[in-house]
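Exercise: predict the structure of this protein bound to pyridoxal-5'-phosphate.
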Amino acid sequence: MTDELRQAARDHLIRYGQGETDRLYVSAMGAMVRDDEGRDILDFTSGQMCATLGHSHPAIVEAIRSGAENAIHLFSGMIPEPVARLAKKLAEWLPEPLSRSMFVNTGSESNEAALRMAKMVTGGYEVIALGGSWHGVTGQAAAASFASERRGYGPKVPGVSVIPEPFAYRCPIGHCRDQCDLSCLKVGLKMFDMGAEGAPAAIIAEPILSAGGVIVPPEGYFNMLKEEASKRGMLLIFDEAQTAFGRIGHKFAATGLGVTPHIMNVSKTLGGGLPLAATITSDAIEEEAHRRGYSYYTSHISDPLPALAGLAVLETVEKENLIERATQMGGYLRRQLDALQQKYEAIGDIRGQGLLFGIDLVKDRESRDPDLELAANTTRRCLELGLSMNIKNRPERGAVWRIAPPLTITEDELDRGVEILDKALREGLDARAKMKRAGA
Ligand SMILES: Cc1ncc(COP(=O)(O)O)c(C=O)c1O
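Solution:
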């Protein structure tokens, strides 16, 4: 059956960029995923960055069970009780003045809804996004994404300008080295102003540019971004798909930064593995959007079952102190990653916060040229050795392992993961040295 199903996957699935189908996967529990040969694989990506509680956490399983027994889906105009409860609970978590949510399915969708709202409220359409950003694959979200492949899909939604990302390790304007002085932002805004058409709407940004290589903007960046947005009559949108609900050691990146955006989007980490996202704003902006006739009506908006999963996520993060745990386990992992960096010249930079890390692999520490081959080979080898990891391999932004295990991961599991990273790196570098000696 195993071979037959693998063949079925090869024959009948559209290849969307998913990589190998040499094996299929059958179950996932905690920080482990099991493949069709019964091999347990440590999950250093929390699924697609969504399973912060670990896979199939009992609270999520119970939410799904009770949701299925009560109401899975309703007419989109009916507000289910769990949706009202989740909106209230979220409002208790949110920094003021954010207090109103709309529940959709995916991160892309939350960005569509937010940009649509910003355009409606401001009456403009010009949007600024950062280089290296990823906001999704749907219309407006894709137009504002610069870490994803943009070629081959026809014209994007007009009105989007890109400004250089604050990447101190590989400064996109060739200005800084290791310490970003915000020149990228000043230059980017100057360029925007030069081409602006007088219809400002929004600046959209990830608080940590994750798909772009886990880029952590410097202190003061978001204060300035908000100030500059306000000066131009633009709304600041934070895309907290990966940073909300504990991942980086805060309720939200916004609370850690002390900068509250006009609109905040949460997605991946809200549903505990189920598709659930929210676009969140203040009373004042919601009022103005409503007054102007804002609508966002989809088949699965305000669905009751995923809302129960969202409630279970918030309650579990509180009950299991997962925000503190992200900082604590992140510190534990960071010490081990630092030790690996001492050992291997190939680890040029380690970036991140809480339990979200980017490990930048370089050919040498002076040139910082990304070692794309080493990153690809070691990621493949890690999987063979029982560790699933994500790789962000772009010549312009680095060869970066992205590590984001569930917040519930144990020290033993982290130790095991680091052992595998160590072994994969050692083997990869040894193999290369051998080939070099052989004159290949
Ligand atoms: C920051 C960010 N925003 C939006 C998205 C898109 O979310 P989704 O894939 O759920 O549409 C992603 C997905 O990786 C993301 O990382």
